[in-house]
Amino acid sequence: MSISIQTERLILRDAVPEDWAAIHEYASDPQVVRHSIWGPNTEEQTKEYVAQLIEMQREMPRMSFELVDALKETGELIGGCGIHAAGFNAEIGYTFNPRFWGSGYASEAAFALLRFGFEELGVHRIYATCRPDNEASAKVMQRIGMKREGRMREHLYFKGAFHDSELYSILRHEL
């Protein structure tokens, strides 16, 4: 199942091999990935990631959707987002090129993922996490109607340390 979700300003679509350079622009940026368990990526790691995205598109039934975010007006790839469903729950996430931070694109993409999860995947609850000091991501989750459930203490180990996560969620009837 090939996916293309349109919002007012964005097209969320499946990745193609040619997307790797635009993805690498932000995936290799230490500022972008400082709160992430991955990165900064080498060119080889980004190409492997794009290959994994394309392989994910072949899953049947497809329950994981890692999409690229492109500007509707120009087609320029500016970020990525994803939704992964399991049973009645799904998790969303998003990463954007810092040249496009502060323009509302993350909120626009994340809200589109909520609608897709509830309307197309039929999930009941969608959640997302961020590191406690990632205030911009927390604001995105709040802006799209998610509610803070609490802090998961030192549940992740990456980049040589244990990390906390703030957990947010929204239920289908709250959208």
UniProtKB/TrEMBL annotation:
Gene3D superfamilies: 3.40.630.30. Pfam families: Acetyltransf_3. Residues 10-174 form the N-acetyltransferase domain. Keywords: Acyltransferase, Transferase. Belongs to the acetyltransferase family. RimJ subfamily. This is GNAT family N-acetyltransferase.
